[in-house]
Amino acid sequence: MDDKNFIIAEAHCDGPCGVYDPASARVAGEAVQSMTNKMLGLTCPSTDNGPAMAHYLNTMARYAAIKEEEAQKCKDELLVLWTDFFKPQHLEAYPDLHETFWNAAKLCSACKVEVSATHAQELMDAIEEIHGIFWAAKGREVAWVRAS
């Protein structure tokens, strides 16, 4: 084939710039924290009260399912930022970038298998740190705003 039949394209990211944003990880992280707090706030009724126990177990199961789903969603969103947006030049400016993302992904896993307010808050703190790094790498100041 002749070189004139090819179009050469270059891109910084795997997708067009502007499609990446840590906000989706934040929203998922907030859901994890919310469900964790709701689970910790539930009071188990007497096992002698069948209807109350059924309601409690159903509510707990629903909270747990949402928490785990959102923790996985958060992890997926963070991994996309880590592997698709950030490039080697970002490591020069942020030498702890890999460890920051690795720890955040591990917190997502911990939040899936545990009901820990501490880990849920640590996850939110990690997402906030990543938010700051992401927007600084893009040369922008974007406020950290939580929905809840």
> What name goes with the CATH superfamily?
Nickel-containing superoxide dismutase
Stretches where pLDDT falls below 50 for ≥5 residues? none
* SSE run: HHHHH
Q: Please state the second-level CATH architecture.
A: Up-down Bundle
What number of domains? Answer: 1
Largest sheet: none
Notable traits:
single chain; 148 residues; mainly alpha; Four Helix Bundle (Hemerythrin (Met), subunit A); 0% strand
Q: Quick gist of this model?
A:
With 148 residues, the protein is mainly alpha-helical. Helices cover 67% and strands 0% of the residues.
Descriptive overview:
This protein is mainly alpha-helical and 148 residues long. The chain has helices spanning 23-41, 50-85, 88-93, 97-113, 117-137. It has one domain (20-137): Nickel-containing superoxide dismutase (Four Helix Bundle (Hemerythrin (Met), subunit A), Up-down Bundle), CATH 1.20.120. It contains 5 helices and no strands.
Topology record:
Elements: H1 23-41, H2 50-85, H3 88-93, H4 97-113, H5 117-137
Helix pairs in contact: 1-2, 1-5, 2-4, 4-5
